[in-house]
Amino acid sequence: MQQLLCKRVDMFEVHERIICYITPILSCMDINVTTFGIDLECPSVMGISNNFWILKRFYSNNFFQKKQVTDYSPLFETTSIPENFHVHTKTCRIPVTEIKPEYYRRNWRVDVVPNCSQELLFTDLTQDDSVLSLKKEYRDTKLPCSIYSINSEGYATPFSDLKKPQNVAHLDRFMAKCGSHKNFYRTLPISPEIQTKLNFWKNHSTSKAWNVLFIGFDTVSRSHLHRSLPKTLEFLSKKGFVDLKGYHSLAPYTTVNTAAMLMGLQTCLDCPQVYNDKCAKTINDYLDECPVIIKDFNAGNFLTLYMDNAENEYSPLQLEMPIADFHVNPIFHVVNKFREKRNIEKRECFSNESGVEFMISYQKKFMEKFKNYPFFAFTWFAHPFHDYPYSLAHYDIKFLNFFQSLDPKIYSRTLIMISGDHGERYQFFNSDGVEGYIERSLPPLLVRLPDHLPNFAEATSTLNQNADKLTSAFDIHQTFRHILNYEVPGEAFALKDRSSLMKSIPDDRTCDKLHVLKGFCVCNATENRRSLENSIYLKELIIFSIDQLNQMVQSSEIGEFCEEWITVFMPEIAAFEVSRRSETKIVLLRFFARPKSTWVKHKFEIRLSVSHKYNSISDKMSLVPGSIMRVDAYGQENSCIFETNIEDKLVKELCFSSLQTSNSSSTTLNCEFKPGKIMEVVVSTGGLIPALVSVSVLTLTVLVTKPKSFSKLRTILYEIRKFVEDLILFLITASWILALGVPYGVLMVWRATIWLYLKIRYGFLGELVSAPDVIGVMDTDRSRQILKSLKVMEGDCDLDDLRVRCQLAVGRVDSKTGHLVYPKFYQILDRVGGFFCWKPSNYDIEHHVRFLDGLDENSPSISEAEAMERCGRVCNEAFAPGRAHWEILVIPKFHYDVENEDVENAVRKLAIYVRIHHGIGDGFSLLKFILKDMAREKECDIPLPKKPKRSVWFGIGVVLFFMFRGPRYLYWEMIHKDENPLMKLQASGQKCLAWSEQISVEFVKEIKSKLKTGMSTVMLSAFAGAVRRYYDEIDNGQHPKQVSLVMPLPAPNHPDDQMVNKFSIILFPLAIDSVDPVERVRDIDREGRKLAQSPEVVMNLFLVTLAGAMPVVLARPFFTNTQATMVVSNIPGPSRTIKIYNRKLVDTMFWLPHLGSSGISISFLSYGSNLRIGLTVDKGIIPNGNDGARGILQNTIEELVKLAEQIGVSTEGVVHDPHASHTFRSKKSSDADQPSNDSSKSLSLEIKASEMDRDEIKDESSKNPSQLQNAILSGHKNFSRTASRQ
Fold first, then answer.
1. Could you read off the pLDDT of 851-904 as tens digits, one per residue?
2. How far is Cα 453 from Cα 459, in angstroms, rounded to an integer?
3. Do the beta carbons of residue 160 and residue 185 sit within 8 Å?
4. Where are the transmembrane segments (predicted)?
5. Are 267 and 255 within 8 A, CB to CB?
6. Phi-psi bin for 165: left (phi > 0), alpha (psi -120 to 50), beta?
7. pTM of the predicted structure, to 2 decimals
8. Alpha-carbon 1100 to chain mean position
């Protein structure tokens, strides 16, 4: 018995292990124990005690029974029938339930609703909807502003610029966009087809044509409408609306009910195909060919409106093309694409009003414009009421104002209906009785007839008589047809299974006659609260229900892809009597079950018909068809299953898919096979031993240590599995190393031979490119590895002076060795014997320091924008053949804003644009060269990582750890690749440069301190928000969850007096999915801490050295980036003002090269009290070049401001322009045009740098006149030879 029972207990479900402990006791007592799982408390000391009493109580109620025939007599005890009924006919009785039952009073809340009040309304639309323009206060914005037209399929395409007012009279759906701000509009233009209808009614009387206004609510029951909109319903009652209490839903699916409303077609489980094969073969087909009632109103020259804000399968009508004159759905699709779907606060915001408010106002606008013409308007509110039913209460005043504001003429000529499809599915499971079960089958139906309708009094009287009779969506359809053809005798609209509500409805209606799903019918239900959960037959009810559930799923067409369900007993299990007949009673049961492969519990309900006439269980019980229902969200767990009919749709909800992906060719699966990661592949090939080890260790841990929670066991199991995986990968990697060790040694011997040749041939200036430097010399025509830097300085331009000072910097000689400190400034890259090498160049200082192409000392001032454009043109150009790979291009006269700045009286400035090949050195080497040799700073205050002093044993332990854990990261990097729209584009080689405005360092530090993170994390979070916006713009609101960044990190003990590349690189997953800026900061900070503890940084530094020593052909694949979308670097610059070549440095920025397939690189550089963001983009990746780059930078600043506002950091003086004297203002700033006092708040310290005048130059050169002075005068034509011999 113990073995039999324990077979049903998953060894990984520790909560259930106590069953195995007590089974021997039960066996000795000769007790009949049924083998199925019981959910118990966590196995703590207290939990074991509690579990004992749980089991004792459970067994005493259900299992401690001697073998006997189950007595079902309690099912047939007489119970009282409620006196009040919604429907009380000879064939159907539906009891009245409380509007606010006890469980609702306990749990009542008002769900969060879209809060769009903070959205920026920056546009004005004229009253006649003809002209759109920017509001006065936004007309001077520098943001790009455009109008996008929205087509019928929900795609937005650029229409025109918005800097000037634009005529939009012919657009019915459009979006205005400025930067990241968006305003959406849906107008009522008069198309030629609509004008034809208007002309028709000008020549015909409208006295016999009646308007129709239908307002529907998704997942709203009649009771829920009453408790959510009390003020609105009170007004409607006074206005003469009739509440049809017997209105019954056909099924718990929107499409079933709306198909009956709008098409009069039946959808049932017994039908061979959907809609009786009249217009659509599957529930996934478009319904354009179906007899939608809107087409009949169109044929009658009615003006038609169809509007719903549902998504996908929740839409009442799945249409490929619009069938109404005004079809509003596409604009909702565009809004959902552009807005943040994960945050309901921003979802469906139309300018500064929510989607529901937009629909209400648009409905009112439609009726006011066409109140003199016959119209048919169908409006369906799905979001947010489908997912957040409690949010309906928020709109009570909105709907009240809508009905109060309607023109009396509309009431006099309009049939108004307010209805729904079904109630909330979860009500019964969360209730203490059957109110929720009854309520969800009774959606609302309120009807008001037109005041001027002929025989109005008689029709209204008939309508009131029908209020207590059983009605359905088919009756709504017949009423539509009746009002459309009101002159036709009403008997034509009173059929057997449907009737106009203005005709008397028969009393003999049943659910079967109305095509109501049997398991959803509440006719003859009782509100009796008799609970059967303590009855002796509850066990049989649950077992039978599980068998029926599995049988129904496994016997369906998709059953082969579904797992078996297993019972889980919980305190919430309950059974209620809901109906009775002479020999049977209907029992409503709620229960829990879990898939066989997991311990996650799911909620179900079922209706069983129980009889007392027979002896066997199978004869006593039967399933009410269609009554099994899953009442929790199943998400994407069965997304692979593709349903084609209503039966599949029902079974899909009951299925827990055993295959999330499949390579099957079966048409029932709509998924592609996605191979797992290499780790899973490796483990799957030898997973038996790890599984046995894991189970053994886990079992011992349970029995010995008795951990307090199952999560600890899962953690232990995960770590064991990870250890085994690392061991396997380490052995695989070790075998590769052993196999390739000899060939690699041969290559190193050849490398040493090439080094010897270079030394003999070129002396001191002949050198192999060091292994770490190889990463910086992997050029391609589309992406050359060139670092760029722009430096703006005060003073006049003296080109000769700049050349002399530059020569002193690059030609510095080590006094001890007599060799050049920076020999790479005199060398060129070449390839010898398959290896990269350095060779002497044809050096000429006049070539390396010169004016930017097209400029000279007499050129006019260059603006910031023009300088960026000119620098961008040459940033990817190759260096001149035979010349060293660096140059300083001079802009003699530079001003930020030439048009608005007083150039004549302004401080004179020049700029130098530095281009230096990455092979010479990395960004940190370049920055230290600038500070020490160009700025003559004695101390370098750049924080760089230092190698801590550790013991030898610590070092050995670290090495072993990295050797063991490193292969996992190595293989992951080999197989990882970003999949997003930007990675599908190809770089063109044409680059554009941009930099942001100056951002206050103190501002960023304040955010950093508030969030207790780093400045890099803060800036990356803001950039991630900007990247998310860009993806939304280029891909219609779609964006990846994350993008990978290549991030260089300086190695410890970076050398001071050398130009080298000493850094490691990592792949950093930048999370961009979250709309919450604080959440993005947490995600990025978490990833950063994870990487800091991983061996990836050290491993990559080792791999760069190892691969860089190989020949170019073998090394190139290691350094060709195909995994990451972007490159990012953050360098902290000087914290004080410095001088470059004896000129005060006003501003500075650097730009990274692109790496491999990446087309975007971003850099952060601080200087003094401000920092800038630099962006390099490839026009093949960002087609709009400079504008696109500036837009991303502006969005980055906006995201930074948004983050500050959310955490309560002041946004005054965020961005500072020291030349225009204005400050960036956030939305909360009340006066955007006031001048900023940011300059007075600047924290930069004006510290004089050490000046070096002409005399000092002479003194410096006099130290070595034989070489330095002659080299400067002669152009250094022979300097390289002299230095090499020395």
1. 998 898 888 888 888 999 899 889 889 999 889 999 999 999 998 877 777 777
2. 9
3. no
4. 681-705, 726-750
5. yes
6. beta
7. 0.52
8. 31
